[in-house]
Every structure is written in structure tokens, then in C-alpha cells.
């Protein structure tokens, strides 16, 4: 059964809550040579980072992903503690200044209001609640991942249609090159006869045997049968990959390089301006194909 074609570009967001703790997960993906994951996790989530990476790796094969998980514990009861080291430093400074200056000592609320004297710490959850929170966050990650995969596949459907049109254009130009009259050996021979006639008119002598040899050589050099056959095979292969779907981006990229190689050879062998023009149009269509292939997973 064929799989949907997927783009490497997508975005998804999911939210959730466990008790009084709320959290959110965002995933963004763009083109990448392989699978690259960047994690931006809220404090305390290190124990589940490996599981998050494993789940993403099971669902996505290529792309540069950024995963951001925020946790809001404001609903959970926290505690305010005095930073004893900072307080001691403040009191020492006050004692030192009071011996040198005649000034009123600051009030308690003024001292506690100094930066660093009071620390607000999140109250740690009991082990069973922390475990439940991590499980809920993983469920949120899974929901976000499903959304990301769906977004990438929706764009993949659009890309598949675009790629199909480019392949149709490559096939049209290939058929046009195959039907071009300059490929006929009789045409090549006639051209050579015309060139020989000019030489004879200028006093140079060329035997019929030599002319036949030169005609054969010229026709062989201008023969693009192999290039056309390979282009036809590549077209069939490309359509088969699009039909199969799944992570075929690397194969399509390699195939687009093969397309380009055959088009270059066709242009170099061309013995007519019109055929060269077809070859250049073919190269342009292949470049458009390859540009879109870079987005495929």
C-alpha cells in the first residue's frame, strides 16, 4: 500500500494540563539533509528528552526540527526562601556603611526587596505527581507530533502535484527531441554532402568512401538514442516513486541529477539549433523539478 508523500516543512502546537500545571509543545520543521532535532525543554524535563527524541525519530525520517516545551507551574504552590549568603553580604555592607555614615538603617521590607535576597522556588511535586506530569507531557508531545506529520503530508500532496507536472513537461520535451528530424541519418548525410560540395567547388577532392565514413562518424557522435532511452526510464522511475510515496526525497534528488546528466549530454551531441533549444528547455524543466524535490522528506 502506497504512503502519502511528505514535505519536510511543517508546524504544529498542542497544549495540556496535569492538575494545576499547564504546558505546551511546539514543533517546527524545515528542510534538512538528515534528521536533526533541537530541543528547548523547560527545567525538569531532562528525564523524558530521550523518549521525545525516540518518538520523533519513529515518525519522521528527514528534516531539521525544533521542539519547544514550556511548563507553567504558577498554579502549583511554591515557596519563598531567604538567600542567606546574599542577606549576609547586605548586612555586612550595612554595618560597614553605618560606621562611616550617619544615616538611618533601612527597614526590613527594604532589605528583603533587594535583588537576590529573596528567592522564589517552585515547590517540587511528589514523585507520583511528577511522574504523572511527565506522562501527560509525553501525551502532549505525541499529539503535537501527529499534527506535525499531518501538516507535512498535506504539503506533500501539493508538492506531488507540482512534481507530476514537471515530470510531464520533461516527458513532453523528451518526445519532442526524439521526433526531431536532425536525428535522421539521411539528414546527417545530406548535410555532409552539402559540405563536401562546397569543398569540391573550392578544388578539394573527397571520395565517396571517405564521405560515407565521415557521415557515419558524424551520425554516431550525434546519436542521442541512449540518452533518450535513459530519460524515458528515469521518467518511469520518477512516477513510480511518486506513486509509492513515503520518504523518497533522497531517491528523487538522485534521479533529478541523472536527468540533468542526460540533458547535458543531449545538448553536447546536438547537431541542430532547434534540438539544442529543446535540450535547454529540458534542463530548465529538470532544474524546476530538482528545486521542488529538495522539499520532499
Automatic annotation (TrEMBL):
Pfam families recorded: YicC-like_C, YicC-like_N
Task: Work out whether the entry's keyword set contains Hydrolase.
Answer: yes
Protein name per Swiss-Prot or TrEMBL: YicC family protein
Its required cofactor(s), as named, are: a divalent metal cation
- Show which residues constitute the signal peptide: none
Superkingdom is Bacteria
Annotated ranges, domain Endoribonuclease YicC-like C-terminal: 187-297
InterPro entries in alphabetical order:
YicC-like_C (IPR013551), YicC-like_N (IPR013527), YicC/YloC-like (IPR005229)
One of the entry's Gene Ontology molecular-function terms is: hydrolase activity
Family, similarity comment = Belongs to the YicC/YloC family.
